[in-house]
Amino acid sequence: MRGKYFLIGCIAVITLSSCTDDSQYTSVVSNKIAITKLIFFDSNLAKLIGQAGASYHAAQTDFSDLLHPELTEGALTGRFSSINSSRVAHNVFAPEHIYNSTDQLSFRNIALSAPYFHNGSFKTVKEVIPFYNVRDISP
């Protein structure tokens, strides 16, 4: 009987000691969350008066404004690209015909799916290569 309690005690100690220590995380104060939410939805603070940050940073568009792209800094500090930095999440806006049945990107007939990028800034595959080769890839 004593061995049974000893075993249960050992299991309890191991289980409790393996729990994550939350002291390493800093909790966000609820009023900071509320202030951030107010700023994000305030239509008086945006570059375009009458629009809030939420107006052009919607979750449905990967928090990007696909209709009004700004110049964004690429992977190389101080180097700016001519279009928004592309991200994998932008692939949801790609035409469906370039995906196969298991959602794997296919390059078959890629020349027929122009223009390229989420804003159509490149008209041919030949224009895309120097963009990736030079500007936005880390050395």
Automatic annotation (TrEMBL):
GO terms for molecular function: electron transfer activity; heme binding. This is RagB/SusD family nutrient uptake outer membrane protein.
